[in-house]
């Protein structure tokens, strides 16, 4: 195969290689770089390609091996790659130390919210929180099981409304 024919074949197959590069890298810019590296390696090693064999499979192998080599090099360097949109976490350590202040504020607010509940709702809610089953609460308080479920549901709803500031939205 002449150099011109080889170049033409590479150019034709480059469009079919791009989805594979994107699958490997999961990033368009990195996929383009991987595709370019693959084409450069293929062209510089065209003398190693045997005529009559599958050029597409040869290119896929070069791309896969190039990706693996680049990945191993990156791991050896210990490079941290942040793929998130928020670059705030670049160079952050894997260990986060918190001082529990937020937890203490939250517990105080939760305790206060539970204390502010009417006893009709607080008693079944706290019993359920402590591990009692619905039927055990119903027997102990001498009320129907449906009433127990309803009061626990209302208590949860009231607490959710009271503690709205602690509910995270995704």
TrEMBL record:
UniProt domain RNA polymerase sigma factor 70 region 4 type: residue ranges: 109-159
Alphabetical GO biological process terms: DNA-templated transcription initiation
Entry keyword Transcription regulation: yes
Superkingdom of the organism of origin: Bacteria
Keywords: Sigma factor, Transcription, Transcription regulation
CDD domains tied to this protein: Sigma70_r4
UniProt entry tagged with the keyword Amino-acid biosynthesis: no
GO MF, one annotated term: DNA binding
Every RNA polymerase sigma-70 region domain range: 15-73
SUPFAM superfamilies in the record: Sigma2 domain of RNA polymerase sigma factors, Sigma3 and sigma4 domains of RNA polymerase sigma factors
Family to which the UniProt record says this protein belongs: Belongs to the sigma-70 factor family. ECF subfamily.
Name listed for the protein in its UniProt record: RNA polymerase sigma-70 factor, ECF subfamily
Taxonomic path: Bacteria, Pseudomonadati, Bacteroidota, Cytophagia, Cytophagales
